[in-house]
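Quick question: what would this complex look like in 3D?
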Amino acid sequence: MGQSLFEKVWDAHAVRELSNGQTQLLIGTHLIHEVTSPQAFGMLRDKGLPVKYPHRTFATVDHIVPTNETAEPYSDALAQGMIEELRKNCLENNVKFFDTNTGKQGIVHIVGPEQGITQPGTTIACGDSHTSTHGAFGAIAFGIGTSQVRDVLATQTIALNELKVRRINVDGELPPGVYAKDVILHIIRQLGTQGGTGFAYEYAGSTFENFTMEERMTVCNMSIEGGARAGYVNPDETTFEYLKGRPYSPQGAAWDAAVENWKSFASDPDCKYDDIVNIDAADIEPTVTWGITPGQGVGINENIPAVADGKTQSERDSIDEALEHMKFEGGSAIKGKKIDVAFLGSCTNGRLSDLKEVAKYIEGRKVAEGVKAIVVPGSQVVSQIAKELGLDKIYQDAGFEWRAAGCSMCLAMNPDKLIGDQLCASSSNRNFKGRQGSPTGRTMLMSPLMVAAAAVTGEVSDAREVFGVSATVSA
Amino acid sequence: MASDPINQVTGKGVYVPGDDIDTDRIIPARFMKCITFDGLGEYLFYDVRKTEEGEDKKHNLNDPRFSEASIIVSGNNFGCGSSREHAPQSIMRAGYNAVVAGSFAEIFYGNSTNLGVVCVTATDVDREVLAKAIEMNPELDITINVKDHKIWFGDQYITCDMRPGARDSLLKGTFDPLDELHASADSVTETASKLTYMGV
């Protein structure tokens, strides 16, 4: 009987069984940022413990950095205090920090892969639930709490329960205008926001085999929104091609050995899964969320559900609560909802391929009057390459604000926030009440091109119609 | 740093209705601009409790009848969303030491257990019975017995469940795993040395 990638990586990193039956798991790569690490460093100081393997922790700053000012001190003294605390902690503990002056700072889940730190067959942890992103490389990557950040710093291990594995096969070619974001919104809609509890998701099938690394990252990123603590894609030539030559990738003879080793982690054809789900790519439509959980999504040509559509009382209550917050009428069309803000960015969709794809269509178009549209590159590297390609100019000519790298309006721990009950077309990952900074603010999750379509029309629209997307254009 | 075992939790309850109570709702991100967890209790469920003008909303969490509560009763998928430990930290620092829900999101569950915040699941029907009992008598003492999987209130009980690892570590007082993880430093080094990428 073969093993899945999850089992192989788990076995290679399991140190021992703990007294409560959990596994002590070695965390090979630890990523940290300014929000969830300062308390952990504080706990280490209190206990007088050193960092066990400083060279296996990498830091950057993303949540609190303003995207509209780069000079320090920032106007927000709390934000300034947090970046300084991280600098101090990294310096004192000899941890590599991709600071704002390095040209490499950015959202932690974009920086790791970009620098070649994220590698197949490894375990990765970060005090951020979207750490599942790194699974795109065939790593097992967990979001962890701050006490566990402390545990990793002090011991390079955490206590965990082993997960079951659900294989999600998506097969076939996605229709034009349908993207990786739609795939994951579709999966969460089908399996629910807690369907993945206790599971790691293995994403497979021809759709994933044909995906680029950035598309795979978009899907793995939102595994946690479906309740799965980790999600991954088996490593293949696409993975190795992406990693070759990156700053932290193995070089020379070590590269060939690494690739051989990485290949050995891929799930064996005869391995056993705890569950298997099959999805036909042709069934996936551009998907938009209408409610307050990422599972509350519909295809662009569908209607928002009415309370009566709920199958159980708790489902009816959830629909009711969501409709009330979103100020939508049950049964109405999702298309045509007037938006106030368009946000293109985040660890889900702030990569170069996202910005390039939208730029193809946005060139020569204008953001609708009254809509505030911002584009936030996921990292300084993404920003730099995009500028070299002239993308900043294309976006600015279209009426988008071009910002500096950071988490920005995904979670509003920085000046980018919704005001009042503004409705935002967002390429981010969470539509929770208040997520984008205003308690009454409203978020609709969708693909980057759907965000652009909403920006230029001023309402939720089918990007395929707005931009005349066809097989030939998108190829 | 073994802690005292937690065999049971006793206190008064408050019902926070709704499924999918996410961590942004438990502690909005804007209150996480801090470098310690001190003071987070003040912002627990801030937007659930307050209007945008900072006035109290009509909610059980603002109702003086439930001001002494230390056990939260809520819906399914409690604690979904981010990995922020700020969520259970704010729950604990606001004076709550247990949550009874239909189900929990995994990262929240682990973070809570590490702090000794007891998270147990109970069925929709049973939680409704419990919520009604609290509504009828806010002074009602509720006891969650970790050992025998029962929640007692008045002369009745409902059954509850928790993950085996969490239950064991609460009963043994090893819910903060740091000491145990630290004790096997040599085995960690051995495991790490077998992996080329670790560079050790």
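Answer marked as accepted. Chain B has a mean pLDDT of 96.
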